[in-house]
Structures are given as structure tokens and as C-alpha cells.
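Cont'd.
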Amino acid sequence: MPNPIILGTVALDSVETPFGKHRNILGGSASYAAFAASFFAKPGIVSIVGTDFPEEHLDLLAAKHINLAGIQKRGASFRWEGVYEYTMHEANTTHLILGSLIDFEPKLPLEYQQGKYVFLANIDPEMQLQVIEQLVEPKLTLLDTRDLWIKTKPDALKKAIRKVDILLLNDAEARQLFETPNLVKAAQEALKMGVQGVIIKKGEHGALLFTEGKHFNAPGYPLEMIKDPTGCGDAFGGALLGYLAKTGDISEKNLRKAIVYGSALASFNAEDFSLERMKKLTWNDIEKRVHEFRTMREF
Amino acid sequence: MPNPIILGTVALDSVETPFGKHRNILGGSASYAAFAASFFAKPGIVSIVGTDFPEEHLDLLAAKHINLAGIQKRGASFRWEGVYEYTMHEANTTHLILGSLIDFEPKLPLEYQQGKYVFLANIDPEMQLQVIEQLVEPKLTLLDTRDLWIKTKPDALKKAIRKVDILLLNDAEARQLFETPNLVKAAQEALKMGVQGVIIKKGEHGALLFTEGKHFNAPGYPLEMIKDPTGCGDAFGGALLGYLAKTGDISEKNLRKAIVYGSALASFNAEDFSLERMKKLTWNDIEKRVHEFRTMREF
């Protein structure tokens, strides 16, 4: 049984940052998340690609023992084109081709339905709901989203949030979804919706975890060179859930550790385009960075 | 001998935030910094006020055993009027009366000249330079600044930075002064100027300390209610230096602790207008919050 199960996009990205421009590179929330998760466990992807999707990209995922049985193949591939400006804080989408993603109906292979750890990465919330319905008895479900869905499908998104254990979103999205500039208030509103925990990603400023009566603050890694932030949030979520799946411990204490592993993978991911940095990553690199996260917090 | 010595403004503020509007309340960088420092040591202020400055404000500082011998009195008081909008991130200055601050020449009383710990809080960098020149043998000098001086007096500011031990500034100012969006690069540029350490204040996102080869990341406190952020950076610097003055230990390790005490005082300060929250603060409140800072970043 693949573990964790990861729903999201597998895409062809064209990305421009102050450090370069690359066309038709491997992207998509599920690609980043599954690759990051593969350092800890044997994830399976639920997604769709076009018949034009390069085999080499899928081979790269398969070589990391990522289960691809949940990837459908038809029509045209999902393509995203974006530009990051000077501050590298946010990408401006310059072009988008939905391709066969537009009427994608996620269908879990039998072996996926028993999945215990499930990451509903960034994708249409209606597709997230469809996956939730096919799960027999998940132990932990994590849902990520983005501004687009908050704006265009707030009802489906809220319905999905009410059915998961942990909500993951970035600071701007938390402010937008709960209509407050204060992240503590936003987190409290999320907890009122029934989730057990809320994780707010803040990019270079780290991440926050809010659970009932408890708060964890994970530092951002002091990166001198950010080449391409695409997929950092996905790598964060994938590594986090991979770590939980590996350890089988969903206590708040272990969730803190999982967040630090997520932060480590996200920080590596920003160091190069596409999955280039993660491709070269060793377990030793990860442990070394997690150790740095520890020492940079000590007082 | 007062310790630490704090140069900065003592002002009459008129502040509007989404939580209220208050006129002619006690403000100024030295007021906030000295009040915060007074929980740890017996600070002395170097500043100027007008003959119209309310005695009750000075009495409040004196009651906290803050030495006021370095405060000159003539002309009109420095007045600042600002409005914080919805996000509370930055104040828009709506009115400014410099008063006698315009030709203020800081003159250290004899007992101040031997000062060991010195906080050059936000004020004209030429005044900061004048104070540096009057110090006989300081043990640790900390310099804060703001966007206005980076823009209008970059040469004097850089000259002052080269003469101090630690540079304190917020993230926007660090990016502005060193012309890079990357805070790690900005910090490295600052270290190249000869300072021993750079502290970057990031408001709700905490604070960063960069020293040669080391990095410390202090979390932000998860405040649900921020009533007025005015003076938080000043309270941060004042408490930080007060803690160092109290402990007499300027090692990197102790600087980390000092930053957490600074963060604690800054977080309290945001909870009410002017010095209202700090006025009610007990040592027990401070220790409790520092303990929270510890637990919120354990993993």
C-alpha cells in the first residue's frame, strides 16, 4: 500500500526568476510533494497527465519508488507559466493551460483506498472532496489550498476543510480565507471549523502550528540564494506527511518534528529550479539541515 | 552611573489604530526603550523635550528609576502623529513637529560618559555620532535606525554603523540599506562594515541575529490582539540592552537570551497604546512569557 497518498497536479512548468528561465520542466503540487515524501516513505500519487507528458519525468518519480498507479493519462498536460519578480515572494501566473485537468475525476486504485496518511495538495477542492469520499479509514488527512480556490470555490473548500484533520495554507491565504490580518485569529477560526491543527506557511519566516491550546513556531532557514521558490509549500507538506507516515506518530510533539523536516525539504527545494536540488539530496544533507534548525533556535 | 545609556526621542504622540485614537500620549524611541530597560537595569536617557512637555510623563519615567539628567529642556516638544491601517504593519506619519529636536546637540552628563552599555535608538545619525564621541570606554554599543535616515542621511548613518558593535534594524530597512531583497545577504553586508552582530526585527515574524558564522532565529509571539505597535522596536532594543547590562555578559549565547527578553517586552508593548501595558507589567509576567517563547519553539 502506498503511503502517504498524495492528490495534486503533475505539470509542465515554465518558470522565470531573476536567476534564470526554464521551459517545460517537471512541476505540479503532487510531483514536489511526492518527491519530498519519498525521502521518508513510499508515496503514491493521484493525478492526471496528458498523453504528451514526457516519460522521463514519470521515470524520475518512479525511480524514487513513488507509486504512479493513481495517475491517469489522457488529453493534454496541465501547463503553468509563471514569473517571479525581484523579491521572489510571489509568482505572477502569465499563462495557464488546464488540459485534461479540467474534467479530472480522481479515482483511487484499490490499494490506495486503504491509505492511512493522505495529503490533499493544492488542486480543485471538489477533487479533494472526491478523494476523501474514497478513503476507507484514513489516520491523518492534510489539506493544502491556494488563493484561487478561496476566491472561486469557497463553499467546496470549506466543505473539504471540515472533513480533514489538518489545514495547511500560507499566511496570505489564511488572512484571506478567515478575513482577518491577524494569523492567531485566523488559526482560531480554522480550529472552530473542526480541524485538529492548522499549519501556516510563511516562506522565509518559517511556519506556525496551532492546535487546541498549543502553539509551535518553526524557523525559516536563512537561505542566501533562493533560485526558484516554486513547489516549496508542496515539498513542505509532502515531507511533513512522509515523516508522519514513516514514524506512525501523529502526536502534537511529533507533528512539530514533522514540520521541521518539512521546512528542511522546502528550504532545499528553493535552491534550484524544478526538482533539481531534491534530486541530488542525500539523507545526510537532510539530517544536517534539521540539526541547523535546532541550533538556530537555542537560547 | 546609569546603565544602559539610551539616546533617542522623548515625544508626544498622537496615534490612531483600528482599536482607538489617542492624542498627546507619551512616546519617542528613548521613552519606550528606557522603560523596557528599567525592568532589568537603571537606564539613563539622553534626549530633549520642550518646555511644554507634561511633567507627569517625566514623573512616570523617574518613578521607574530612569535617570533623566541627560534630558535637555527648551523650545517646543517633538510631536509625531501617525495612523496604522487594517494590517497594522506600518504607520503612516500624518503630521510631524520637530520642535527643539531640530537643533538638538546631545551632551552627556559626566556620569553618563563612563557608560558601558549604550543604545543609540532611532534618532538622527549625526546625533548618534555625537554621543559615540563622548563615550570614554563603552563595552557594547547598539544602533537602531529607520527608513527616513537611510534615505536622507545615508553617509552619516554608515559612518555611525562603522563605530558600533551591533546594528539593529527591521527587515524592510535591512533590504533598503543594503539594496537586496535577501536578508541573509543584507546581514552579511552589515558584518562586512565591521559590526559584530546584526539583529533584524521582523515584527510578528520574530527577530534574526547574525554574527560571524552563527545564526539565531527568535520566534514572534502569537498575539491575538495588537492594539498599537508603536515603540515595539524601541522596547525590544531597550530590554535587550537592559538584559545585557544586568548580566554583564556579551557572549553570542547571552545575546540570544537578551533577544528573547527583547521580544517579550515588544510583544507586551503592542497590547496597548503608549506605555500603558508596560506600566502594569510585572517581572512574573515577563518570565512567564519568556517561558512561552521557549516552549513554542521546542521540537
